[in-house]
C-alpha cells in the first residue's frame, strides 16, 4: 500500500512512456539476439544429428538393397548374355537412382583384394565380383575417390570388429558414410556414400517462424504501449482539466487573499497616519489660537506645511497603491535638511520640550549644500518621522539624545541620513535577517510594545515607502551604545 501511495505522487508524462518503450524495446532486442543465438545453436545441433541420421539411413537402405539384389541374383542362373545384362542394368539403376539425388555425390562398394582395395562403382564390376566369378576389370574411373579408400583403410578394423555404420563429417555439412557390406553372411567390404544433406530450407522455415513470432511479440508490445499512451492521454487530459480548474480557483482565492491583505494593511496604515494627522491638527489649532500680527508669516508657513501633510494623509486614504509619479517626480525639489529641521522644530520639540524630567535632546549635524532630491517632501516626512518616533518610544524610560546626520558619499551619488540615539539599542532578535535579507525590525506587526494594538507599523511603513522612492533603510546597534537608523537615498 505504501508503494502504491508513493506511485500516486508521480505523474507519468509522455516522456516517461517513450523512455519505458525504448527500454523495453532494447531489452526485447537483446533478448531476441540471445534467443536467436541459442535457437541457432539448437538448430545446428538438431540439424547435425538429423543430417547424420539421414545420411546413415540413406546409406544403410542403399546397402541393404544391394545386398538383397546380390543374394537374390546369386541363387539364380544367368547363363545367357541377356540375363546377365539385365542383372547388370539392375545394379546400375540402383546406383544411378541414388546419384540422381542432389545431396548424394558418390556411391560405390569397397572390397579388400589382397593388399589393395577395389572400388566397385558400376553394375558390371559388382556382377563380376559377386555373381559372375570373373576378375574385376579396374578402370581409371574406378580409382577416382582416394578419400573413400583412405577412410575405409583407416576404419576397416573397427568396421569389421563392431559391424556398425561409420559416418565421418568433413567440413560443415558433408558426410562420408561407410556401411558394412555382407555377402553370404560375411562382411566382404563396405558400401561408401558421400552425402551432403540439404536442410537449408528447413532451417530457413524454422528461422522464418521464429522471426514471425518475434515480430508478433514486438507488435503486441507496441500495441500495448500505444494503448497505454491513449489511455494516459485521456486520463492526462482529464487531469489537466481538473488541475486548470483547481489552479483557476486557487488563483482566484490567492487574488482575493492578496486584496484582503492589501486592504488590511491599507486600513492599518491609515490608522497609523491618521493618528499623526490628529496630532498635526492639534498643532494647527494651537497655532491659530496664538496667531498674532508679529508671528503671522511664520505661523502661516508652518500651518501651510501642516495642512499639506494632512492633505497627503487624506490622499493616502484614496488608494493603498498610489501611482509612482506622486512619489517620485522631477517636479519635486525637496531639501532633506529643511525637512529634518522642520520635523524637529515644529513637530517633536513641540511634544518633547526641553527641561522635562525625561526629555529628548536633538542634535542636528546636517551637511551643507547637499543636492535636492526629486521625491515628494511629505513622502520624505512619512519616512523620517516614524523612525525618529520609534527611537523615542523605545527609550521612553530614560533621558535620550538624538543625533540627526546627513552626509554625501565621496562620489556625490548617494545621500546618507542617520538617526542615532544613546539609548539601549535594538534587541538582537530584531536585527536577524530572513531568507530575503530583511531584518525582523522592518517586518509587519513586529514591535517591542507588548499588548499595544496597531503597533509595529512605523518601521515597516518607512521601509515600504523608501522602496517606492528607490531608497533603502537599515538598522544597526552602535559600538558606543545606542541604536542607529540609516537611510541611503539615491539622487537620481
Provide structural commentary.
The protein has a five-stranded antiparallel beta sheet with strand order 2-1-5-4-3, sandwiched between helices. It has a five-stranded mixed beta sheet with strand order 6-7-8-10-9. It has ten helices and ten strands. The chain is rod-shaped, with a radius of gyration of 59 Å. About 1% of the residues have low confidence. It is an alpha+beta fold. The protein has three domains: 191 residues, PAS domain (Beta-Lactamase, 2-Layer Sandwich); 68 residues; 163 residues, Heat Shock Protein 90 (2-Layer Sandwich).
Helical segment tally? 10
Q: Can you identify the CATH superfamily of the largest domain?
A: PAS domain
How does the helix and strand content classify structurally?
alpha+beta
Beta-strand portion reads 15-25%
Distance between the termini: 64 Å
**Largest sheet, described in full?**
5 strands, antiparallel
The overall pLDDT average reads: 78
What helical percentage do the residues reach? Answer: 40-55%
Regions with little confidence, pLDDT below 50 for 5+ residues: 140-144
Radius of gyration equals 59 Å
User: How many beta strands in the DSSP annotation?
Assistant: 10
- In N-to-C order, the SSE pattern is HHHEEHHEEEHHHEHEEHEE
Form type: rod-shaped
Reported CATH architecture of the largest domain = 2-Layer Sandwich
CATH topology of the largest domain: Beta-Lactamase
What is the CATH level 1 assignment of the largest domain? Alpha Beta
Task: Work out the count of structural domains.
Answer: 3
The strand order across the widest sheet is 2-1-5-4-3
